[in-house]
Amino acid sequence: MSGLIAAATSAGDKRIALRAGLTCGRIQRLPGAFNPLVAKLVQELGFEGVYVSGAVVSAELALPDIGLTTLTEVAGRGQQIARVTDLPVLIDADTGFGEPMNAARTVTVLEDAGLAGCHIEDQVNPKRCGQLDGKVVVPAAEMIRRLRAAVSARRDPNFVICARTDARAVEGLDAAVDRAKAYADAGADLIFTEALTGPAEFEKFRAAVQVPLLANMTEFGKTELISTSTLQDLGYNAVIYPVTTLRLAMHAAEQGLREIAAQGIQTGLLDRMQHRSRLYELLEYQRYNDFDSGIFNFTVSE
């Protein structure tokens, strides 16, 4: 029964794996999963971790990424995703959902939900999408209070607390570097600088900051897309692809719905669909059958 219904790996072991991965010399790739099934696919395809994007959690609720989601909603989704995968899951905790005390509570709730780590950012509360103009960051001293509160609330020392700074687009690269150093001094295990423009800025940031660094490779934003091999050569420890799977899925869903609306039948879409047999393979139906033949007592024709 191990590994069915829920992952076989404990939350504690997943946190150890994330922390070890950040210092192993090989970049840790964390594609965004918009639901638990995608997280299973991420694991099957050999990635090192899973990411849960706040923008995606918002979008799934048909809300913009402007701080409308709650800790309960984000932690609930994170728990559903972390439950099904043996990989460590890093989750977007926005600004910590309020004041320093809220950031402290956020860490305890995310620990209880089985997450391996979270990132907290230095935007004002409520925040906005990191790729948009018009962001406002809090004074560095206020973010340091947020981080110290989060770190002090952590019960598992292996839970990774990542500090995200949005200062690059607001105050410039040098200010973002200064903030990153201060955030590391405040106890952040990992630094995420949002909206760097290209390899030169990534390289400058790496040269200036000693702690592990996370790169954001989101599409259609301010950052040039850079390969994992180049990011590894630049010295980055982790990379997230936050919205990629949702963008792929929503584009495919829209194209399919348009065709059904126009043609009245989905026959022309079949070669673009995941086959029922592949879905059942990903869901591990056969292993459920081995556990209880009353559950799985049929075959799927190709």
Key terms:
13 helices, alpha/beta, eight-stranded parallel sheet, 11% strand, 302 residues
User: Looking across the biggest beta sheet, what order are the strands in?
Assistant: 1-8-7-6-5-4-3-2
Number of domain modules: 2
Quote the CATH topology of the largest domain.
TIM Barrel
Distance, first to last CA: 27 Å
**Assigned CATH superfamily of the largest domain:** Phosphoenolpyruvate-binding domains
Task: Please state roughly what percent of the residues sit in beta strands, choosing from under 5%, 5-15%, 15-25%, 25-35%, 35-45% or over 45%.
Answer: 5-15%
Question: Quick one: CATH class of the largest domain?
Answer: Alpha Beta
Overall CATH architecture of the largest domain? Alpha-Beta Barrel
Share of residues in helices: 40-55%
| Count of individual helical segments | 13
Q: List the helices and strands in order.
A: HEHEHHEHEHEHHEHEHEHHH
Q: Any idea what the radius of gyration is? A: 20 Å
Low-confidence stretches: none
What does this structure look like?
It is a single chain. By secondary structure, this protein is α/β, with parallel strands linked by helices. It has two domains: 11-243, Alpha-Beta Barrel (TIM Barrel), CATH 3.20.20; 251-295, no CATH class. The protein has helices at 11-21, 36-44, 54-60, 71-84, 100-112, 140-153, 168-171, 173-185, 199-208, 228-233, 244-263, 276-283, 285-291; strands at residues 28-31, 50-52, 89-92, 117-121, 160-165, 190-193, 213-216, 238-241. Strands 1-8-7-6-5-4-3-2 form an eight-stranded parallel sheet. Helix 2 runs parallel beside helix 4. It is globular and about 60 Å long.
